[in-house]
Write a structure and sequence with these properties.
single chain; 174 residues; 6 strands; 54% helix
Length: 174
């Protein structure tokens, strides 16, 4: 059998194509990682301007939480400024945390996924911006739930996200 020099060219071209394909996949993974790393933090927490002033936003939020069958952990919003002051820290812009829970949803999630108890109860922060406006920040439950999947996705991404949206209806600017 004689080597005519033609058998190595197709083999080298095939190897080069294979290596280029692997390089493309590797570059794709790196780009997806970079995009996720830069975009995800800004999507994990949702912040919107409120339609009411600070005190009225907190009062209305507490009222709506109870109206929708949820409970306020601790019975009322946590005044972060007062809490900091107890430790000698004076912080001027007001910040209050509204921690809400619905026992049946918590039980359902904790039955299958106790590791997410660190995200419970759901917390919404009402705060004053340096511009004097009132804002509300919360975890993006829909996105968080998709990342976890399973029962967390069904409960937190479904029922919890829908009811939180109803509670906040009209309190936030678009």
């Amino acid at each position: 059998m004689m080597d005519d020099g033609h058998s190595t060219a197709p083999s080298q071209a095939k190897n080069r194509t294979w290596l280029m394909g692997l390089a493309g996949v590797a570059i794709g993974f790196v780009l997806c990682g970079v995009i996720a790393f830069t975009v995800m933090p800004s999507r994990m927490i949702v912040t919107k301007e409120c339609t009411l002033d600070f005190e009225n936003t907190v009062a209305m939020l507490e009222k709506r939480v109870l109206e929708h069958g949820w409970v306020l952990s601790g019975g009322k919003a946590i005044d972060m400024n007062a809490s900091l002051a107890e430790h000698g820290v004076t912080f001027k812009p007001r910040v209050k945390l509204v921690k809400l829970c619905k026992a049946e949803y918590a039980e359902n999630v904790l039955t299958t996924d106790r590791h997410v108890s660190c995200l419970m109860p759901c917390t919404m922060a009402v705060w004053e911006g340096d511009d004097g406006k009132t804002y509300l920040s919360e975890m993006n439950m829909g996105l968080m739930a998709r990342l976890f999947g399973g029962n967390i996705r069904r409960i937190m991404g479904g029922k919890v996200a829908r009811e939180e949206s109803q509670i906040l209806n009209g309190l936030l600017k678009d």
